[in-house]
Design brief:
Layout lengths: L1 E7 L4 H7 L4 H6 L3 E5 L3 E6 L8 E7 L3 H9 L8 H14 L6 E10 L2 E10 L5 E2 H8 L5 H20 L12 E5 L5 E5 L11 H16 L8 H12 L4 H19 L11
Antiparallel strand pairs: 1-5, 2-3, 3-4, 4-6, 5-6, 7-8, 8-9
Helix pairs in contact: 6-8, 7-9
Length: 271
């Protein structure tokens, strides 16, 4: 038995009509420019001729018996799919004023309870690019004052997320967006948050925040001076002891590196 689930924010219905993604079937069939692809997912950038805002459509595809049974043990059979979890996280972050990224729709197709396809659509944050492109390509040209402004904006954004109790568990440069503001500052945004959650225990929140910071810091030595990395932690920590925080971050670096490996940044030049 195949079941379709589709949800959207009421105020975004006109956007779904304009882009022809008003159902799970349309979201599955829709073509667009591919901006990212993995073995189990793809992200499309959708536009229309009327010049309205673009939308990013991330589609998860679960094929093969092995992957479907794996979902049984990862709680996607009884619980939420990755797309459903990301949809709920992005909605809550938006509702609490923590993230400028606007989620507009979510879809899911299951057969006998197993996820076949799932989708989440977000409105493009105009002028924003991922950090793993922005830092390798544009950081060197910023100049010292703007480098400090950028680091301060990033630290304040991450600190605001963590102070709300949110832990991302996937806080890598590729999942953060940045854009310049009218006053010359920087605005950050978060995408791709299927593993994000709000732990109940203080210990889990503390460990999760340290892992997030370690993930952010993993590629940083190649682009930021040690004094800049400490400035970031100092701005993030506010009244907390920066040295103690730095030690916690360093403790989690090996764990994050094992999980992340030597993944290349998209903005790095090809040699």
């Amino acid at each position: 038995m195949r079941r379709h689930r589709f949800a959207f924010q009421t105020e975004d219905e006109a956007t779904l009509v304009r882009l022809r993604i008003r159902s799970t079937q349309e979201m599955l069939r829709r073509n667009g420019a591919v901006v990212a692809r993995s073995t189990s997912s793809e992200t499309l950038r959708l536009t229309s001729d009327d010049g309205g805002p673009a939308v990013f459509l991330k589609r998860y595809h679960v094929s093969g018996a092995r992957r479907k049974w794996r979902g049984l043990f990862r709680n996607t059979f009884f619980g939420h799919s990755r797309a459903a979890q990301e949809w709920q996280v992005l909605l809550r972050l938006q509702d609490e004023g923590l993230n400028p990224v606007d989620p507009i729709a979510f879809g899911e197709i299951r057969t006998f309870g197993f996820v076949d396809h799932a989708f989440v659509a977000t409105r493009e944050l105009e002028g924003a690019i991922p950090l793993d492109i922005f830092i390798p390509k544009e950081l060197a040209a910023l100049g010292e004052p703007n480098r400090r402004r950028f680091l301060d904006a990033l630290a304040e954004f991450v600190s605001k997320l963590h102070r709300s109790g949110f832990v991302d568990r996937d806080l890598h440069w590729r999942n953060l967006l940045v854009r310049r503001t009218a006053d010359g500052g920087f605005e950050l945004g978060k995408i791709d948050s299927p593993r994000g959650h709000w732990p109940k225990s203080e210990g889990a929140r503390t460990r999760g925040a340290a892992r997030d910071l370690a993930a952010l810091d993993l590629p940083a030595p190649g682009y930021f001076r040690r004094t800049e990395r400490l400035r970031f932690l100092d701005r993030y920590a506010e009244s907390e002891d920066t040295g103690r925080l730095a030690r916690r971050v360093l403790e989690h670096r090996p764990e994050v590196k094992r999980r992340e490996g030597n993944r290349r940044l998209r903005g790095e030049p090809d040699f």
